[in-house]
Structures are given as C-alpha cells and as structure tokens.
Amino acid sequence: RRRSGRPVGIHRFPAAMAAAKGGVDGLTVMINGLPGALAVEVGAACLRRGVQLAPVAFTGPSAKPDCEITEGDKTVKVKLISSADAEAQKAALAEMMTTFGNRLIVVDLTHPTAVNSNADMYANSKCPFVMGTTGGDRDQLMKVTQESGTFAVIAPNMCKQIVAFQATMEKMAKDFPNAFGGYRMDLVESHQSTKADTSGTAKAMVASFNGLGVEPFSVEDIQKLREPERQLALGVPEGALKGHAWHTYTLTSSDSSVQFQFKHNVCGRRTYAEGTLDAVQFLAEKMASGNEKRLFNMIDVLAEGKMQ
User: Is 195 part of the annotated catalytic residue set?
Assistant: First the structure.
C-alpha cells in the first residue's frame, strides 16, 4: 500500500523488527487509544510486568503523531496512526501481526464511535483483542467476534472487585428473583467529563436489578454526571475529577420506609489497567492452549483466578 508517496511497510516501524521476540513469554500488546489516560496507564502496567509494547497504535483524528510511555526507568515511544486514515490503520495492524504473529494482542481503549469499526478490523484479521472501550453496538460487536472465531475478552469493566460485584448481583437475581419487588431504583454514575457515553458498568447492572424485581428501569433512566460542580457536590475529590468512576445504586421501598444502597467508587485508573493486563495474559493462555471457546468476559478471567 502507498500513502502520500510513501510505502506503508514494516520499515516504517524499525523498532518492531528489533523487538519481535516480545516481552513476557514473547507477548506484545498493541494499545489502541493512546495517548488517552487509561491507555497510557495500561502501557505503564505492561512495562511493570515486563510485557512488551508494540511500537504502533491507533489514535483519534486529532492526536499527535507519537507518544511516550514511561514507567520507572523504562520509556517506550509509540507511533500513532490516526483514525482519519483507515487504510493506514489496517496496514499498521497487518504489519504488527506479521511481525509478532500469534503473540500479538490488541487492547482497544479508543472511543465509543470506533468500537464496531475497530472490532470489524480485528475480526477480519483474526487478531486477538481485549475490548475495554464501552459503547457502540454491543450486540453487533459480540456477533462479529463470535462468528469470526477471534479470541477476545469483551467487558465494560476491568476492575476485579467490580467484576465480582457484577457477578454476585447477577447470581442474586437468578437465585432470588423479585427479592426487591416494588422497590424504586435510582442509579447515578459519575465519570470524568471526557467520557462520552453512559457507564457500561451501570448499563450492565440494570438487567440484574430488573431481575430482582425493581420497578421497570431502563438504561435511559441512568443519571449521568459529567459536570465538575455536580461531581464535587456528590463527594468526588477535586484531584480525581479528571479520572474517576463513581456509581451509586439506591433501592427504596414503595412506602419509602426501607432503603438499600450499593456503591463502588474508584478514583484514578490503575485498578482498571491492572485488570486489563490480567485479561491480556488470560487470553494469551487460552490462545496457547488452543481453547475451543474464543469469546470471554472478565467474569471468566476472575473465575479462573487469573487476576493479580
């Protein structure tokens, strides 16, 4: 392929050839979504664990052409390929797959509007991936991934404690349906102002609470806070305004005499980054063993005790 008179080939990414053997067990991670804050945090987690970073990543239409990931005394420079040039992104992914083979795993932390087009690209190439980006058409995402036979972990949340809470509430809904029959639910989620969509975790929890019998509640009923003034009033520390995930689920009886409240409040992004790396290493093991099942979620990762 050629673009602006320059061939799109592996010689554009010389660092890849020098490091083609990869890091831990030869594993290399391509972090699409750099230089986003969570993507940078995942990059740092890779360096902490000795997992190699691919020298190329996808980015948004207006990002700089490269970025650096630093952890301790380690710094890795990553070339960024803009979403404004879809052909260049396809070529870059193909080159990384050629270089690193079946030891390449993509982590997608891009944007809700890129979820399906990126997933189509990974599925068409059979490139294994961890989808940490929320939003998009989730049914189509699952369908394309399943039908392609591509190894993937797809989850709205990468924090192991929150994953355990989700699994617990899902089981509770199955074991004790209508336990909260007639209760009214209020669901408030607060994230940094740069998060474009409603919390994927909150959306996933709605089904469990409906299963417990609360008055009919839809994802459109979720209260989404993105304004700093309202977040501070909620109790979010000022230092966490640019990176937090606070969720409060309040269940109130029909006569208002009884109230239950469930909360999970996270400041910062490190817990999500570490969980993302757990998912990557879990997926690498499944690939190496030739596991018949190809599509997983974070509950699968947690159930096998693979979260550090």
Answer: yes
d(CA 287, CA 58): 23
Per-residue pLDDT tens digits for 190-211 = 999 999 899 999 999 999 999 9
- C-alpha span between 173 and 180 (Å, rounded): 10
Q: Which of 79, 191, 203, 244 is catalytic?
A: 191
Q: Are 170 and 208 in contact (CB under 8 A)?
A: yes
- Candidate list 195, 203, 244, 247, residue with the active-site label: 195
The rounded mean pLDDT for the chain is 92
Res. 11 pLDDT band, cuts 50 70 90: very low
pLDDT band at 218 (very low <50, low <70, confident <90, very high): very high
